[in-house]
Amino acid sequence: MSDVIVIGAGPAGLMAAGTAAQNGYSVSLLERNERPARKLMITGKGRCNITNNCKDIQSLVNAVPGNGKFLYSAFSSFMPEDTIEFFESRGLKLKTERGGRVFPESDRAVEVVDSLHSFALKAGAKIIRARAREILLESGKLVGVKTEDGEVYPSSNVIVATGGMSYPSTGSSGDGYKLAGDCGHSIVKPEPSLVALVAHEWFCPRLQGLSLRNVSINVTDTEKKKVIYKDFGEMLFTHYGLSRPIILSASAHMRPMKSGKYKISIDLKPALSREQLHARILRDFESNLNKNFINSLNLLLPKKLVPVIVKLSGVPMATKVNSVTKEQRERLVELLKNLELTVTGFRPIDEAIVTAGGISLDEIDPQTLQSKLVGGLYFAGEVMDLDAYTGGYNLQIAFSTGRLAGRLKT
């Protein structure tokens, strides 16, 4: 019999198991995959954005839309500076990049996985390859876990850290929702977050593969007639719509999702005012007076974008530059400062970086992460109704909640 059973060897589970073992508990960590933390291996394009090097707790809370206040205790017990010290004290050198994003100096996620795995093992946790199927209760009291192959692991303390439903091939297939639901917990409907967006416009497939750097976006809720999000950075056109960092971050604000509810406006030239852009276009035109309109924008725009902008402008592509009117130039400026797309939905949840929704926080004690319904049952990480913006915040949630749950406060 183990003092503690941890279900799921992702970042939250490994942190919880190692912490509990450090505190003198005997720990069995059940993991369905042959290797732990498979999803962690692919985060940050294989580089692993470990945390965000922000210095105050309010910045962390603000990065968690909707339920950030729930995490005050978890964040207070394990801040980004603690995460950085945790890894560096174990020999993993880190670096901080733009926006406070923290990565291993090697840019190799496997080193983060190895460090967490080693921490749990050296602390004394026993990792068992098994898939939990049921949390066992007797007269409402927690007595253990039953696995898929029928094996029973007795314990009076269980930490569920199975993750969400994104990237199911890595093991995040929603097992924790069923385990918690069978114990009486409510599940907030899982939805994709930090996910690419499907757009209505005809030109997205034509622009597939075009990456734009240093553009800005505004996201408008068309029902409320209100801008709900702004960002600046990199995005990508795909055959279905839009992706890459500023789009993924924007997706976290688009709830509830409904086709046509949100519009994205792209400013292709945010460094220039409309007046400055108009002057720039005039200068380009003066150098190309006898050229066709479609051949006059190559210095201003990526080659792939030119025919799309020309078509949207309504100016015939064979129009000579010296024949383009002021009104047509103004229309061109407006397009470049406000290229608008209508969002029709999210890409599937299995393509999302994280899952929104999960085990309802109303039924979890934020001071301990223990269930309010079943004594000895704890939760950590993405399995709860918690998700944050890009930039290392989601992994910080995993580490902070894993640390807090692993202390088994009652």
CATH class of the largest domain: Alpha Beta
The number of domains: 2
Q: DSSP strand (E) fraction?
A: 15-25%
Instruction: Give a quick account of the main beta sheet: strands, pairing sense, barrel closure.
Output: 6 strands, antiparallel, barrel
Short note summarizing the structure:
The protein is of the alpha+beta class and 410 residues long. The chain has twelve helices and 19 strands. Strand 8 (141-147) and strand 9 form a beta hairpin.
Please characterize this protein's 3D structure.
With 410 residues, the protein is α+β, with helices and mostly antiparallel strands. The protein has two domains: 4-191 and 352-405, FAD/NAD(P)-binding domain (3-Layer(bba) Sandwich), CATH 3.50.50; 196-346, Helicase, Ruva Protein, domain 3, CATH 1.10.8. The protein is built from twelve helices and 19 strands. It has helices spanning 11-22, 57-62, 72-77, 80-88, 109-123, 175-182, 203-206, 245-251, 274-286, 306-313, 326-337, 393-405, and strands at 4-7, 27-31, 51-52, 94-96, 101-104, 126-129, 132-138, 141-147, 152-154, 158-160, 187-193, 197-199, 211-221, 226-237, 241-243, 262-267, 339-346, 354-359, 377-379. Strand 1 (4-7), helix 1 and strand 2 (27-31) form a beta-alpha-beta unit. It is elongated and about 85 Å long.
